Amino acid sequence: MHELSIATAIIEQADALARADGADAVSAVTVRVGELAGVVPDALSFAFEVARDGTALAAARLVVEQVSAQAYCGPCAEEFAVGMPPFFWCPRCDQPSNDLRSGRELAITGIESLRASA
């Protein structure tokens, strides 16, 4: 389950970013996960819950924003859903596309930090 290594990397990066910002803990991490990124969102959420124990993210929640795979067809200027399994054939003009516009994302897009009371 490679989601565990991804969850561990998310926790390490979020912790480093929060500490660099002067935060003591993280309450939430938001990640964008593309449909074609090869990551199962439910498995990632479970792995995050397991990996966060004993870290500054021990009470943090993971917010997963799923991004659908979209391709673009140059000949007819149509953007279309690729789906799963991926099908890169334009439904409008019946031509193949090699211009994937979204769906491979895997990135932290937000961190909610907590600071200790003075």
TrEMBL record:
<dbReference type="Pfam" id="PF01155">
    <property type="entry name" value="HypA"/>
</dbReference>
<feature type="binding site">
    <location>
        <position position="93"/>
    </location>
    <ligand>
        <name>Zn(2+)</name>
    </ligand>
</feature>
<dbReference type="InterPro" id="IPR020538">
    <property type="entry name" value="Hydgase_Ni_incorp_HypA/HybF_CS"/>
</dbReference>
<keyword id="KW-0533">Nickel</keyword>
<feature type="binding site">
    <location>
        <position position="76"/>
    </location>
    <ligand>
        <name>Zn(2+)</name>
    </ligand>
</feature>
<dbReference type="InterPro" id="IPR000688">
    <property type="entry name" value="HypA/HybF"/>
</dbReference>
<keyword id="KW-0862">Zinc</keyword>
<keyword id="KW-0479">Metal-binding</keyword>
<feature type="binding site">
    <location>
        <position position="73"/>
    </location>
    <ligand>
        <name>Zn(2+)</name>
    </ligand>
</feature>
<protein>
    <recommendedName>
        <fullName>Hydrogenase maturation factor HypA</fullName>
    </recommendedName>
</protein>
<feature type="binding site">
    <location>
        <position position="90"/>
    </location>
    <ligand>
        <name>Zn(2+)</name>
    </ligand>
</feature>
<comment type="similarity">
    <text>Belongs to the HypA/HybF family.</text>
</comment>
<feature type="binding site">
    <location>
        <position position="2"/>
    </location>
    <ligand>
        <name>Ni(2+)</name>
    </ligand>
</feature>
<comment type="function">
    <text>Involved in the maturation of [NiFe] hydrogenases. Required for nickel insertion into the metal center of the hydrogenase.</text>
</comment>
